[in-house]
Design a protein that fits this description.
By secondary structure, this protein is of the alpha/beta class. It folds into 2 domains: 306 residues, Alpha-Beta Barrel (TIM Barrel), CATH 3.20.20.100; 30 residues, no CATH class. The protein is built from 13 helices and 10 strands. Helix 1 runs parallel beside helix 9. It is globular. It starts with a strand and ends with a helix. Keywords: Oxidoreductase. It holds the Pfam family Aldo_ket_red. This is Aldo/keto reductase.
Length: 339
């Protein structure tokens, strides 16, 4: 794999991120320790160095497995990202949320499970709509100064909150968020309304979770494998079926798997994007790694984008109106689009 810079930083990460939410067998599914080790071996052998986990994944087992693995490998080779926010114990009222107390406690517990002295990237996992964003950024900046984390990032949070946070951080001289993790795929494009334009403005890398929409975009559900997906899921409706059929058509044209098409649609966007690819079997990972050797042409990208297009709403659709583009601002929009 090639390497990309993560946001407005000098941190070099591989062009596919390995998602480890399935490391552990709690809940009756997932990969055991031996299989997880084999997956990380295959990923590292392909040049992958960017691992994504969270304090709550598999009740902490994901972090423990990663900790056991990297303690016997070159720790500095890996860029280790984890998250805090969601409830991970029942000992106190502050065992969840974005507050400073929970952040400090969660980081200490993650460091123990990961068997490391520092976390490369710490994500706020999900916005709690309670904690002031300046409290979050000041606490993360303190952890950076202490050497316990290296970079700050954020996930599943409204665009206005992230924008306010990065603006405050720039004003106060704190470390800014360098990455934004959100759901994004051909079946889930609503992040294009506010979140992705905001991330592009601040130079943040988008790290999409569920870029294959839980496997729906591989076509397996159209072939009869419903797996653990709920029948009412928006990954099984008529719109999803239409989009997935286009993915399958493009895959057939290129002679590649459907996952390669769906992943490359995210990778070839106009903003910095590193999809998170999960795996509970080695063969799943090995297939997804082939994505980096595939390129979609302009026509294929357009067909996929047209099939999955959403209404941006106001003001996004207003900005895209032909009358505005062609008749206002002296052709300003046309000139911007050509730059």
């Amino acid at each position: 794999m090639n390497y990309k810079l993560l946001g407005r930083s000098g941190l070099k990460v591989s062009e596919l991120c390995l998602g480890t939410m399935g490391f552990g067998t709690e809940g009756g599914w997932g990969a055991d320790a031996a299989t997880s080790f084999a997956i990380m071996d295959a990923y590292a052998n392909a040049g992958g160095n960017f691992l994504d986990t969270a304090n709550v994944y598999k009740l902490g087992t994901s972090e423990k497995i990663i900790g056991d693995y990297i303690s016997n490998h070159d720790r500095d080779y890996f860029v280790l990202a984890t998250k805090y926010t969601l409830k991970d114990n029942v000992t106190n009222p502050n065992a969840s949320g974005n507050n400073r107390k929970n952040m400090m406690r969660s980081v200490e517990e993650s460091l123990k499970r990961l068997k490391t002295d520092f976390i490369d990237v710490l994500y706020l996992h999900i916005w709690d709509n309670i904690t002031p964003i300046d409290e979050v950024l000041r606490a993360m900046d303190d952890l950076i100064k202490q050497g316990k984390i290296t970079y700050a990032a954020i996930s599943d949070t409204p665009a206005w909150v992230v924008a306010k946070g990065n603006t405050l951080a720039e004003l106060m001289g704190w470390s800014q968020f360098i990455a934004l993790q959100v759901e994004y795929s051909l079946l889930a494009r609503t992040a294009e309304r506010e979140l992705i334009p905001m991330a592009k403005h601040f130079g943040m890398t988008v790290t999409p979770w569920a870029p294959l929409a839980g496997g729906a975009l591989t076509g397996k559900y159209l072939k009869g494998d419903k797996g653990r997906i709920k029948p009412e899921s928006n990954r099984l409706n008529a719109r999803a079926e239409k989009i997935t059929k286009v993915v399958m058509e493009v895959a057939a044209e290129l002679g590649v798997s459907e996952s390669h098409v769906a992943l490359n649609w995210t990778r070839q966007q106009y903003f910095s994007c590193i999809p998170i690819v999960g795996a509970t079997k080695v063969n799943q990972l090995l297939d997804n790694l082939k994505t980096v050797d595939v390129v979609l042409n302009a026509d294929q990208m357009k067909r996929l984008s047209d099939a999955s297009a959403i209404e941006l709403g106001f003001p996004g659709d207003f900005f895209n109106e032909e009358a505005v583009k062609n008749n206002s601002f002296g052709g300003f929009y046309d000139r911007v689009e050509k730059r």
